[in-house]
Amino acid sequence: MSENTERSVVVRRTATGRFTATNPRGGTIEFTVPGDAPTTGFSPVELLLAAIGGCTAADVDAATSRHIEPSEFTVTVSGDKISDELGNRMTGLKVAFTVAFPDGDGAERARAVLPRAVRTSHERLCTVSRTVELGTPVTTTVDEP
What we know:
This protein is 33% helix and 30% strand. It has helices at residues 44-64, 107-125, 127-134; strands at 10-15, 18-22, 28-32, 72-84, 87-100. The strands form two sheets. Strands 1-2-3 form a three-stranded antiparallel β-sheet, with no helix packed on it. The chain has a two-stranded antiparallel sheet with strand order 4-5. α1 packs across α2.
């Protein structure tokens, strides 16, 4: 039996510099392209950073919270947006976990599991950061409406 491996979203322009991405399940997220007017919306680059953080956070949360609920769980993803002879891109991507567990049953086990969970997510599990780190070709086309 073969698993359907395709994942997709559809991005539609809603206004100048504003877009909505919709997944096959009907979930949506709006984003903007930074311009002259200030906006609070996410940019595509910030969505990439959020995808990296969200993917690895889900992995680490699954591994640690089975032992005890964290009292703090924050993932900060950062990097530098540059433009050089290779074009616009992000460099120096960093993922920093700040996780704390209250005293109680399972806290020591959760603390012990945390570093391994972060490492395993980075090295094997997080599809988003693995794809960015390993690289994959992106094909673009122009389809007729």
